[in-house]
Design goal:
Blueprint (H helix, E strand, L loop, with lengths): L2 E6 L5 H12 L2 E3 L1 H11 L3 H9 L11 H17 L4 E4 L3 H4 L6 E7 L2 H12 L3 H23 L11 E4 L5 H12 L8 H22 L7 E7 L2 E8 L2 H15 L4 E7 L6
Parallel strand pairs: 1-3, 1-4, 2-3, 4-5, 7-8
Antiparallel strand pairs: 6-7
Helix pairs in contact: 1-8, 2-4, 3-4, 4-9, 6-7, 9-10
């Protein structure tokens, strides 16, 4: 079955739409589980992973490696969840990580700021100033992370298959639209789209494992997987690091076809 990847502005009721689609399609709705599983697999702090997804980067953070490491952990788990089919994935960069997969419907849910603020005021029993501050903090954080990690604008409609404005469309209408879209024949998985997803997930899993391992986390490696064949290209500090990369890649790829194009620099990583 096709997958729904949905991102939403705070106060847009996108979560309610995601829940409605999951219920009508008999899908699992996945969001918090991604952070929990990524933290477990890669021995990371859940709060730190959430901050990497949602919070505005601190000064000079773009030049540091932790954010990229945490990104790799979350991305690997998003793609792993997508392999299971029959899921609605809420946030966690899923609309962008899955943009090249044909059986994924990628949706952004938005609403006018004043409507979002009034919804937050009712939900959280806060004043207008507090609601506006929460919206500004959330929007700025996610927008900055998208620029940092994907070099694109979060609210650009060209990055999505569909953008829904809940100032004009009700939850019920939006849910019905998405269920109808997911049931369209051209949205159904093909062997080619499943293979493409498997390749992406394999590369992401290896990338995250290398970032989680102190012996390989500083290696400058590009990882690709195509047609079930894994390719690693880049540089490592020494032969020991090269061997560690090879062991991890061969173990985690789950396939016998791994091509290495690794150069040993002899220069300690800094």
């Amino acid at each position: 079955m096709p997958i729904l990847a949905l991102t939403r502005e705070i106060g847009s009721v996108g979560t309610h739409i995601a829940q409605g689609v999951a219920r009508q399609m008999g899908y699992d709705l996945v969001r918090q589980e991604i952070i929990a599983e990524a933290a477990r697999l890669y021995e990371a702090e859940p709060d730190t992973l959430v901050a990497t997804v949602e919070n505005r980067p601190k000064m000079f953070e773009a030049q540091r490696t932790p954010a990229r490491r945490h990104f790799a952990f979350v991305a690997a788990e998003v793609l792993n969840v997508a392999l299971k089919d029959n899921v609605v994935i809420l946030g966690r960069w899923s609309t962008l990580l899955l943009r090249d997969i044909g059986h994924v419907l990628r949706v952004r849910v938005c609403a006018p700021v004043d409507l979002r603020a009034s919804r937050l005021m009712r939900r959280f029993k806060v004043e207008a100033d507090e609601a506006a501050q929460r919206i500004r903090r959330s929007d700025e954080g996610i927008r900055a992370r998208m620029r940092q990690l994907f070099d694109l604008e979060w609210d650009d409609p060209l990055h999505y298959d569909l953008t829904i404005n809940t100032g004009c469309v009700t939850i019920e209408e939006a849910t019905g639209l998405l269920v109808a879209a997911l049931n369209q024949p051209h949205r159904q998985p093909t062997q080619a789209s499943r293979d493409a997803l498997w390749d992406l997930a394999t590369a992401a899993r290896v990338r995250a494992a290398l970032k989680a391992n102190p012996a390989t986390d500083q290696a400058d490696i590009t990882i690709r997987c195509s047609g079930g064949r894994l390719e690693l290209t880049g540089t490592v500090e020494d032969a020991e690091a090269r061997d560690a990369v090879a062991r991890l890649a061969e173990t985690l790829a789950g396939i016998g076809a791994v091509d290495y194009h690794l150069s040993v620099t002899g220069i300690p990583a800094t």
